[in-house]
Amino acid sequence: MKAVVFASLIGSAAAFAPAPTARTSTSLAVEKSKALPFLPNPVNCEGYVGNVGFDPLGVSNYFPVDYLREAELKHGRMCQLAWLGYVAVDLGMRVPGYPEAMSSATSATVHGPAVEYGALGNIFIWIAIAEMTSWIGVSQMLQGSGRAPGDFGLGTKFIEGKSAAEVESMKLKEITHCRLAMLAFSGVVTQSVLYDKGFPYF
């Protein structure tokens, strides 16, 4: 009986034994990322416009890349608008009809007055409606409808009559601007708070 128990323990331990060296040498031959040459290339990102192999956390191994690209485009588009809105307010642009506390505030200091006035509650409702509406398209995309990430049927006139290479170039420009806008908005908010000055925040 002791021999049977001992044999089963040895068998269980063998399951956790190191892999043979042959497998290790195979892993060394894996293609490396262009952006991070010390990491493997994220193969799930292949074929997407703007892919440079940047996925250090391996997120594309756990989530559909269509969903990740949808999120990247959404946040990038929002940051393009957000940067413009943030700077426009600090350059003096105001929506008429708001109380003095909001009209005299800067982008960095308007949160408190906006909460008191109730403006942020309205913004929350409109964002919730937009999110629920957009999820219909995202859900269909994830179920194989063929919808491209970020495609809501807007701006199609800009790619009408263009070749596949030209459409690819337009998509690359958009994703590049989206990525830049995410960095730009983070930078403009940080700099405006650190220096406590108006545009250009230094």
How would you describe this structure to a colleague?
With 202 residues, the chain is mainly α. It has 2 domains: 32-62, no CATH class; 65-151 and 161-202. The chain has helices spanning 2-14, 21-28, 65-90, 100-103, 111-117, 119-142, 164-195.
Briefly say what this structure is.
The protein has seven helices and no strands.
- Number of distinct helices: 7
Distance between the termini: 79 Å
Query: What's the order of the H and E elements?
Result: HHHHHHH
Helix content: 55-70%
Instruction: Give the overall pLDDT as a whole number.
Output: 85
Number of strands: 0
In the residues, how many domains can be counted? 2
Give the key terms.
202 residues, mainly alpha, 2 domains, globular, disordered N terminus, chloroplast, photosynthesis, light-harvesting polypeptide, Chloroa_b-bind, signal
Which helices and strands, and how do they pair?
Elements: H1 2-14, H2 21-28, H3 65-90, H4 100-103, H5 111-117, H6 119-142, H7 164-195
